[in-house]
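[job 4471] stage=fold_predict status=RUNNING
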Amino acid sequence: MEYISRLSSSPDVLLGKPVIKNTRITVELILERLGDGMSIEEILEATPNIKREDVLACISYSSDVVAKESLLAS
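[job 4471] inference complete, writing structure tokens
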């Protein structure tokens, strides 16, 4: 998925955290909700100003970020 068209980041909005375009809804918030067990449909019901494609863009973005990282053994 091409997440660039759905997400943005600006130092003037939430200190540059990635957000869904034209909102103050962070990628982090969407991922937290998914991690807490909310379905995409439940997220959309709770935040009607976003679309399914926005949630999928958050997932795609996070996948790209994680792909560039490595987990350090503790």
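[job 4471] summary: The beta strands are 7-8, 19-20.
[job 4471] exit 0
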